[in-house]
Request: fold
Amino acid sequence: MKKLKYAIALLFTFILAFSLTAFADDSSAVYRTLDEIKESGTINIGVFSDKNPFGYVDENGDYQGYDVYFAQRIGEDLGVEINYVSTEAANRVEYLETGKVDIILANFTVTDERAEKVDFALPYMNVALGVVSPDSRVITDLSQLEADDEVIVISGTTAETYLIENNPEIKLQKYDTYANAKNALENGNAAAWANDNTEVIAYALQNPGYTVGIPSLGSQDTIAPAVSKGNESLLNWINDEIKSLASENFFHKDYEETLADTYGLDYEESLVVEGGEPSEDDETAENAETEDSSEAEGADASERVTLTVGASSDAARGTSRAGEACAR
Reply:
């Protein structure tokens, strides 16, 4: 009889402990569900404040850019106000894990490592890595870097991860902000800057004297919104939104409003992902252009596969077409 009572007491204790654990797990969720966001009337979206033309603050103090254009539409369709939260590359995962933001829309490249910590929605842009360097010494291959050379990267970016894993011999100069990285390059602190090719191409177009000598480095990836791990209600809504927006070619309009002044229209089809599905035509074009780039090696300097900013924006855009395969 005593053994039976003991067994019942033990079972009761186990059930109680399990219930308390389950309750604690529910109550410890850092994210807000879709309904909670709607009820609050405000959504917190993490964006860059210094990464023109993707996310930046203009002269009037307003957020602008490709990611922000999408964020504005999310707020409209949800019927809520947007609280923009300025984020750095290294803080994107942390801000979702701590519930500081509901969504990250900050040029966030999808990787397996990040997907273990956050949930990515469908992609809306293609991206690769690229390397920009001064015209006085254009780096067209990483093997050209000497022992004392350093390469600038932003902490928490895929460029940092790629170089650490694939080229551990290269010395890295790490910065937390894009503004500091750009200043370091302009001050001659390093031989080159490795980042998303979209960013380094934009930098070279906007700053004469710099060339994207390596337009494509590593794999071809995508950029997507991200939410806190397990926030299925918000994730499903974003996925449905991205699919729905395809009917109006929303991301093409976004590109034309926010990126065309920087990249021109030649890049539109290779960069934009509509409806969350990168097209097979884009992949075929990328492969073909990559082959063309290889054949161009060793040719006359005027035909080399580098993005040189010089006489005019039209000439720069024409030269930059060789880098389209890397645009992601």
Summary: The CA atoms of residues 109 and 223 lie 4 Å apart.
